[in-house]
Amino acid sequence: MQIAIILISSFLVVSSIIGITSVMGIRTSNANFVEIAEREIPKVRAVSEMQIYAKEAAKNVVDYNGLNIPEAKTDFRKNVEGFRTLSTVYSDLSQNDAERTVFSRLDKVFIDFEKSGYELINIQDAQNAKIDNAVKLIDDKMKVILDDLRKNLNPSEPDFAKKQEALQEMEISISELISAVRAYTVHPAELLASGIDDSTDNFTHYQREFLNTQVTGEEKTRMALMNKYFESLQSLTQEIIALEDKQPSLVSQFGGYDDRLEKILDDELEPMVISRINQVEDKVLNTASATFMAFIASAVLATALGLAISRSISKPIAKMRDAANQIAKGNLDVQLKVGGAGEISSLSKSFNTMVDKIKAQDKAQKEFISVASHEIRSPIQPILSYADLAKKGHISQDEAWTSVLAQARRLQHLSNDILYVTRIEGGDLTYTIRRVKINEIINEVISNEKVNLRGTTTLDANLDKNIEIEADKDRITQVLTNVLGNAVKFTKDGKIRVETHILPGKSKVEIKISDTAGGIPKEIIPKLFGKFVTKNVGAEVQHGTGLGLFISKAIVTAHKGEISGYNNEGGATFTIILPIRQ
Ligand SMILES: Nc1ncnc2c1ncn2[C@@H]1O[C@H](COP(=O)(O)OP(=O)(O)OP(=O)(O)O)[C@@H](O)[C@H]1O
Ligand SMILES: [Mg+2]
To answer: Fewer beta carbons under 10 A from the terminal one: N or C of the chain?
Structure first.
């Protein structure tokens, strides 16, 4: 029981350790995984998307401002909004102090970046508006005047060809002027600036050429108006160039913000978030290896425990095996040291008890054999002596036969008793239980024993109702023959009385045999029903082998009855109680 408890409890302890550590490990790993999944990974995603939006927005500004791509303006707005959304996502996720500082810096730089981007876009819008105005001025006013002048020319006048050429050149000049201005806003190169100047000079030159011919009053008025428009065009052109020339500093300011934005995102925020993930990953790995170590430690512990337990069991069992082998060889002086777990200790105790019992039985058997062989030898010697004496003629044949017969009967009686004892001890004595009339058995035994009465001894019987009992008739006869036989044997000139009583309740019958032989010798009373317990009663040698009462007790006990013997005044009383039903 104890081994089982030790095994179960050690198993429970070890599995609890494994279980708890694993659960703790898994919980920690789980918490760390959740931390990565819920906070760090969205952060990484937010940072990388912010990087993309910022790059796109910067490109949009360049596209709109530098290349005048119209969609770039709406794209810039979309990308700025995208950046803002992700920045809100990021700021909603929990951060440490360092992250918060970097993030607030990022926010500030982005405000500048956005402001500066819109400033450049607005400038481009203003440029475009001015160019539109210039185109309108050329198309709606100046070209209309040129057309009117051309229509009113008279082919017959001498300066017709000259005037026509001047008007043509003027138109070309303003077209070239507006193309150069347009080109300058996209690419403010020196060559284009001089192209603007050249066109202006051309226009002025051909205007003068026209006025140097014979002009009509009408033509003069129209040219004066043209002059006014041209001045407006020139000032618009100057404004466009001036705005264009202002842009590089704004562009470089914008580029600065863009660089800072990129730097914060790429070099500060992103490494920070990634290092957080690495830290959490390390934590997960550490927990995993701690869990693994705990598992290994538990396994080692379990193995050690198992070995210790199996050793504590197998060692005493091996000792027992050796002891059993010794007993098998006939050496009964083996004793096991009682120790170890509960079961082992009780097994050792049982083993020792078993060895003690075997020893006692062995001793009793040896004693029995030695006494029995001595008893068997005793009648043989007189048989040989009487036979020898008769043969030599020293005694009469009759005398010799009488003695030889007596000793042969003794030998027969003895060998029968020894056989009974052997059967009783081996559990081989069988009983044939039948319904028998108790008084009939008693009377039979009395009439048999009467012939042996000595001297003036009387034998009286006072029997209760002749009831039937369940018993083995021969065996009960054997018991009564011995007990009454003892009384007859030991009584000389006395009184023997046999009584029966059906006891109250009518389930038992009591048989009482008393005599006046002098009583059971005191020294044998404690072992009266033992083997070979025999003693003279009175001066005459009357005792036998001392097996009679031993066999009697065994038979009565097998009938679930009781037998006892005690002394009364002047003699002994033996009581046998037998149950009526078995
Ligand atoms: N009625 C009796 N009065 C006095 N002593 C008795 C009486 N019956 C038995 N004993 C004592 O008890 C002893 C044992 O009796 P038990 O019948 O066992 O053996 P036994 O008569 O000596 O020999 P066995 O019966 O084997 O021939 C006797 O030897 C005797 O000393
Ligand atoms: Mg006897």
So the answer is: N
